[in-house]
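As a warm-up, study this chain.
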Amino acid sequence: MKQTTRRPLLNSTAAALLCLLTASPLLAATKTVTHKRVAHKVVRKTKSQNAKKVDEGFQYSSAEPQEVPVSASSQTTVKRSRPGTSTVLPTEGAPRVRRAVKAKVEDRVGIQAPKFGDFTLTMQSKNTMTMGRKHELEEIGGQNFFLKNELVVGVKHKSGWGLSIADDIRQTNSNADTKDYRGRITDASLIIGHPALYKSESLSIGGQLRPYIPTSERSQKNDFRQVRYQSFADITMPAKWGLSNMLMPIWMTSNNMSADSSDIYVYDCLELTHQTAQTVRFGLGQQTQWEHHVGTPAGTTVEVYPFVDIEWIPNVLIEPKVYLPVFVSNLVDGAPSVVAMSQLQAELYVKIGF
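Now compare it with the structure written out below.
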């Protein structure tokens, strides 16, 4: 059997932390994002094609993955997978949800948002660093980390209505011999918040509509469109316990869809939290992802994750977490391919703003 080459995790983790600290849009807003042009063709390998269930448990077989040459000039994401798996749409707007827009410990008083009459200015920098899954970090050619640095600026009326504009820079890093590193600005989006549908001392239900604007070259080329709606429900319980849920359906269209491309995606996140101090909150959550494909069976994955919210510095929220898959049916893009410890994934979320 072909031996898997293992590599130290220290270099990958250090590089990811450095990039997260330096890639915030508040620091990089005035810089031009450049892409490293590679003269030769890059070979992409599908994660799921190497996954195989054997008698001893889940492990990766020595079967050679299908190679898909991707033109470096087109910068188009392509994935080939077995029937029933998903394909990344050729756009930056493909769903990768890892963090909902929720109020947590950051409600503590810090820098006050500027007010102009009945309007309040909002400005937030949301930075997410998602490490590669355990097997990816250990295999040559796997993904070290994925960065998403989002900047949101808007206003909110005292009635509860709000309007913001958001855009983000996404970066990936691979441990392949080519040291392929890509950064790109994605489609901008409008965030239209509405007043709470229901609000009491213990329960609040609200939401926001988020249509995406095809500002990127790839979305314009493939006529890609995307609309999301995020629904929030927060329950306050005795003894500083809390329960929150975020449900988000996503509708997508494109003129470049294949049978296993996604057109409908539904994400649900349920979290139970306990605030142990004014600046610390522990929690346990689950996220369910369901992805409908144009012509192949839909995929469903369920992951659980422990996490902690830390706000030692006002207006700065830090949230580390670790995802563990507990259910997989077919595949969802970016989600675990099997239920196994090799599919563990760590994530760090940092939010700055008001």
